[in-house]
Amino acid sequence: MTPTREQMRAWFDTFNRQYFNGELPLPRLALGNSRTRLGSMSCRRRRTLTGWRLSDFAIRLSTYYDCTEREMQTVLLHEMIHYYIAWKGMRDDAPHGSVFRSIMNRLNTRHGWDISVSASMRGRKTAAPHNDRRPRLVLALENSRGECFLTVVNPRYAAQLKSRLKNAADATQRAWFVSTDPFFSDFTTVRSLRARKVKREVFDEKIACGTMVDI
């Protein structure tokens, strides 16, 4: 199945009440197309006078693989455990250490879940392709060796990225454009200079079909 953010929100609210005493504030919930992981929890870490402060929590589920509703919910619970540990300021001895495993084992034993420390992507069936035509801001780059790269950029970081490009001596061609091509649906939306290498014909085609913009 491919959940919506509304379904994600409903699952989060239910699990928060049932398993975390309703203590977790709603984080940013998002869907992505990661091929390397089924889910992730992230946050911003800032140093203050009293120590480290965590903020901007986000949980993301990948829709790249064909997962059942139960599997998606299990991944969400895995990430909610990470979120709970971080939000409560609990210290663990590893990313999936004794604190994480204690909560995981409680949910598995008492509530019948099958949460695991990690999940293998090997042999997983990919989800059916979907016609995702959301507009995306794309940066096209070519280096001095003629290699071509495309990346989808978070619009809020476009100006910052453009400024960094001034010092990127090997970027001989730079083009910014908006595209609704489903080709870009599995690209990670970046805030830093990371791009995917593509063939010349793909590079030229995507630029030609995009709407050029000034950043």
TrEMBL record:
Species of origin: Leyella lascolaii
GO molecular function: metalloendopeptidase activity; polyubiquitin modification-dependent protein binding; single-stranded DNA binding
Top-level division of the source organism's lineage: Bacteria
Entry's transmembrane regions: none
PANTHER family assigned: DNA-DEPENDENT METALLOPROTEASE SPRTN
A single BP term in Gene Ontology: DNA damage response
Annotated SprT-like domain residues: 9-111
UniProt-recorded name of the protein: SprT-like domain-containing protein
